[in-house]
Amino acid sequence: MFDNKEKTNIEALGEFGLINHLTKNIELVQKSTIKGVGDDAAVLDFEGKRMLVSTDMLLEGIHFDLAYTPLKHLGYKAIQVNLSDIYAMNGTPTQVTVAIGMSSKFPIEAVEEIYEGIYIACEKYGVDLIGGDTSSSKQGLVLSVTSIGYADAEDVVYRNGAQEGDLICVSGDLGGAYVGLQLLEREKLIYLENPNIQPDLEGKDYIVERQLKPEARKDVIDLLKEIDVKPTAMIDISDGLASEIMHICKQSSKGCSIYEEKIPLDPMTFETAREFNLDPTVCALSGGEDYELLFTVKQADYEKIKFKMDISIIGHITEPASGCNLITKSGNVHPLKAQGWNAFPNSESADK
Amino acid sequence: MFDNKEKTNIEALGEFGLINHLTKNIELVQKSTIKGVGDDAAVLDFEGKRMLVSTDMLLEGIHFDLAYTPLKHLGYKAIQVNLSDIYAMNGTPTQVTVAIGMSSKFPIEAVEEIYEGIYIACEKYGVDLIGGDTSSSKQGLVLSVTSIGYADAEDVVYRNGAQEGDLICVSGDLGGAYVGLQLLEREKLIYLENPNIQPDLEGKDYIVERQLKPEARKDVIDLLKEIDVKPTAMIDISDGLASEIMHICKQSSKGCSIYEEKIPLDPMTFETAREFNLDPTVCALSGGEDYELLFTVKQADYEKIKFKMDISIIGHITEPASGCNLITKSGNVHPLKAQGWNAFPNSESADK
Asked: Helices (H) and strands (E) in chain A — how many of each?
């Protein structure tokens, strides 16, 4: 019988601590495994092309709330967050597998809606759904997606290539998905108190969509190829800007300076954050789920990138000794903290 | 807000009906996708080698019960059931990704035990764990594994290649995993009624292990290569012999005759089934989770295969019009029914 002698709760480690703890002793044995755990996607060498593989699991009550998540959007988002990992390697996604667990009482129309969203996302990005698993769940809805893609060996961009002096760039704008979530949570509470009151999301389409229907930034990868800029390091923003740039700096053994005034914020994100008495910069740094691309480029590429509409240069890579810092609008220097979205929400993570 | 207007429950479809329903309109667009949904693993063409991908999800309360499943065994089994799918394509597994969802109250030692089982399985089969996802779950333990492997294009064995007259072969013995499960369920009930009574699994190691610690049949794939036999069709037995041979027959547009007296049963499976007033043949046909390989070979290969210890010839492929039949020991002919292990346990599946 299962002996439930508890010792250390996962809470004490946090997600990254746990992953690190569980994977630190892996020894890779296959010649075709170029990169395993530790980046956005695994890299496999299949005869010239690098194959890219990434897996993400979405759990009801942790990653989504069916009270305000349309099922079609959920399916769409499950694919997008996985494709985003392949783009973050500078690759081209080509296939996905989807494993889904749900109550056997779930109406078929609901499952269809999820798959409709999955198929729309696949079609839009030219990706094949190539397999998966469908099972009953006694415990709510679970979606696990594995995405597969490829890149020429010389095109793959890892997290560990940032060099001192490199410019730190980010696509789109940040914080919107998090502020959108606050809005949805508020309307849910109002609805639960009085179901006759319709949700008031009037004029908030943009940030609600940032939360419910993110888009993987294929266009940014295409743009970078077009202007012949290969990032030195890249990651997608799922846990917030602070957490992600710290991943790049840690794996590149470097520090960084991020300028608060350069962090791209949509006006609606800014205003709505204020309505919630939230600091818009903190929403961008720690909110997560924006699925924008964060990447570093050589200074020599500055001219190529400086006027690109959808790319902001927000700082630069420094020597490791100076650490990872935010330069505030008032000129103060604050060490960045990776208090991003946490897959173990109750946890006291070590870096908090 | 999510409008929960129910129409059709998943129950009415059953797992295969649901998968078929959800995937029937897929249009593959990638040149590299040779085979998507509909076999044990997807097949991708990456420059000469066929890459194989398969995903399976294990959910607490559906696929396993922590009351009697040691966590190390659970991790081991999660890998084995996925490798089994790659072998069932006549491939060589090379990588796996593991996504895991668990309560944040779960003790770290418990997670370590799961991963210990995962790593033991990976090491034993020379497979790299190359990525995954770890998240909190509000709803019990969830494991989703994606396995990746390869085969030369001409070596891949699908489900649809069986020809009239081909011999139907199965490795190992059947029904043990199901009977082992009955034993564990009984001991659990006894334990719940009186926790002072220790489980009585004395002398039942083999069938308990068949349930808790299955082995993917790499050795059978190696043997077939060694004796230069390429199956015409192959599948692994996860849902029971009846369900699996019907998959082969349906996809090959053929019928079959299976001889009850030829179905391999371990004496312990036979005896224990009798103790539970179960028909041992039904356990083999419908029990599932044996993870043996079921395959068809040309009659010309009979001499090569007839004396192989661990392979039983249990029947032959017939014309489609005669259907899928079991010839009983007394010579009666019964149409096979795919009432295998069902991922939607409450469902009335169409073929029952």
From this structure: 10, 13
Q: Are B68 and B192 in contact (CB under 8 A)?
A: no
| Distance, CA of A331 to chain centre | 29
Confidence category of residue A213, pLDDT binned at 50, 70, 90: very high
What the block records as the tokens of B32 is: 């590299």
CA distance A248 to chain B (A): 18
Which residues of A are less than 8 Å from B94 in CB distance? 30, 32-33, 44
* DSSP character at residue B166: P
Assess whether pLDDT exceeds 70 at residue A26: no
> What phi and psi values does residue B13 have, to the nearest 5 degrees?
-95, -35
Domain that holds residue A106: 52-154
Q: Does A193 touch chain B (CB under 8 A)?
A: no
A118 with A76, same domain?
Answer: yes
Nearest CB to A6; choose among B29, B107, B133: B107
- The two structure tokens encoding residue A296: 């570093």
Burial of A176: CB neighbours in 10 Å, binned 0-12, 13-18, 19+:
buried
Structural domain count of chain A: 2
**What's the CATH number where B105 sits?**
3.30.1330.10
Residue with tokens 């029990």: B287
- Together in a domain, A103 and A175: no
Mean pLDDT of A81-86: 92
- Going edge to edge, which strands form the sheet with A49-59? A33-35, A42-46, A49-59, A142-152, A92-102, A128-136
In sign, the C-alpha dihedral spanning A130, A136, A139, A141 is positive
Does any domain span residue B236? yes
* Domain end marker among B99, B121, B155: B155
CB pairs under 8 A between A and B: 332
Q: What is the pLDDT of residue B110?
A: 81
How far, CA to CA in Å, does A4 sit from each of A261, B213, B249?
51, 20, 46
A237 and A282 belong to one structural domain:
yes
Distance of CA A70 to the CA centre of its chain: 20
The three-class DSSP label of residue B283 is helix
**What phi and psi, each to the nearest 5 degrees, are found at residue A336?**
-70, 145
For the beta sheet containing A167-171, the strands, ordered from the edge strand earlier in sequence to the opposite edge, are: A233-236, A293-297, A167-171, A311-318, A255-259, A324-327, A333-335
Task: Tell me, yes or no, whether B221 and B117 share the same domain.
Answer: no
Q: What is the pLDDT of residues B277-289, one digit of tens each?
A: 999 999 999 998 9
B323-344 pLDDT, tens digit per residue, is: 999 999 999 999 998 764 444 4
Residue A121 within any structural domain of the chain = yes
Average pLDDT, chain A: 83
Complex ipTM: 0.81
Residue B139: inside a domain: yes
Q: Is residue A37 in a domain?
A: no
A150 with A41: CB under 8 angstroms?
no
Which of B2, B55, B101 has the CB atom closest to A146's CB atom? B55
Using a CB-CB cut-off of 8 Å, the residues of chain B touching A199 are: 1
Domain boundary among A126, A154, A182: A154
